[in-house]
């Protein structure tokens, strides 16, 4: 993975990546583990995968923007917690727009490069967007809310206007 733009990470994800990198470097520097069922080819493949992951993590850490919340302007971008409504079903979902491979928290993460992330990046509250899923279907979503990750626990949930309630 080569990145030229900043990669938004939570401080926890940054720490996890640093810990994973340290463990991979230690494993790569040590003698290969010998087991009865491990062949030379298996060890070569494992070492190659470790080195690829080391390069990937180093690239992520080099371009990391750690814990700096984007502006609280309601625009969908990495580092924002988005609440969307799937227009065809009416279901809502809240997730972090961030680096899926790095974040492991209490909230679902979608990459800005995913079809949903690509469709929503730059959207404002109330904007409707559409994206295609792998089977070719078109999915329509409405951005209900976008708050910086650091604010999402304290922010009230997005409220939709009441309809049919005599308002």
Structure description:
The chain is an alpha/beta fold and 167 residues long. It has two domains: 7-66; 80-151, Chitinase A, domain 3 (Roll), CATH 3.10.50.30. The chain is 29% helix and 22% strand. It contains three helices and seven strands; from the N terminus they run βααββββαββ. The strands form two sheets. It has a five-stranded mixed β-sheet with strand order 5-4-3-7-6. A hairpin with a 5-residue loop joins β6 (128-132) and β7 (138-148). α1 runs antiparallel to α2. The longest helix is centred in the first third of the chain and has 23 residues, at 40-62. The protein is elongated and about 55 Å long. The termini are far apart.
Provide the gyration radius in Å: 20 Å
Helix content: 25-40%
Number of DSSP helices? 3
**CATH topology heading of the largest domain:** Chitinase A, domain 3
- Average pLDDT: 82
**Overall CATH class of the largest domain:** Alpha Beta
Give the overall shape.
elongated
Provide the fold topology.
Blueprint: E1 7-9, H1 11-29, H2 40-62, E2 64-66, E3 80-86, E4 92-97, E5 109-110, H3 115-120, E6 128-132, E7 138-148
Parallel strand pairs: 1-2, 4-5
Antiparallel strand pairs: 3-4, 3-7, 6-7
Question: Could you name the key traits of this structure?
Answer:
167 residues; 2 domains; Chitinase A, domain 3; elongated; two-stranded parallel sheet; single chain; alpha/beta; five-stranded mixed β-sheet
Could you provide a short overview of the structure?
GO terms for molecular function: translation elongation factor activity. It is built from 3 helices and 7 strands, in the order E-H-H-E-E-E-E-H-E-E.
């Amino acid at each position: 993975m080569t990145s030229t733009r900043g990669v938004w990470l939570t401080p926890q994800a940054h720490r996890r990546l640093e810990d994973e990198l340290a463990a991979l470097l230690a494993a790569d520097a040590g003698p290969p583990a010998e087991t009865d069922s491990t062949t030379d080819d298996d060890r070569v493949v494992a070492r190659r995968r470790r080195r690829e992951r080391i390069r990937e993590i180093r690239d992520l850490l080099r371009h990391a923007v750690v814990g700096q919340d984007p502006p609280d302007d309601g625009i969908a971008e990495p580092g924002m917690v988005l609440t969307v409504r799937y227009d065809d079903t009416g279901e809502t979902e809240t997730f972090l727009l961030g680096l899926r491979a790095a974040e492991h928290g209490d909230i679902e993460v979608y990459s800005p490069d995913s079809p949903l992330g690509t469709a929503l990046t730059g959207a404002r509250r109330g904007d409707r967007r559409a994206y295609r899923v792998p089977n070719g279907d078109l999915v329509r979503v409405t951005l209900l809310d976008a708050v910086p990750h650091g604010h999402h626990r304290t922010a009230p949930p997005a409220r939709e206007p009441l309809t049919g309630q005599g308002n």
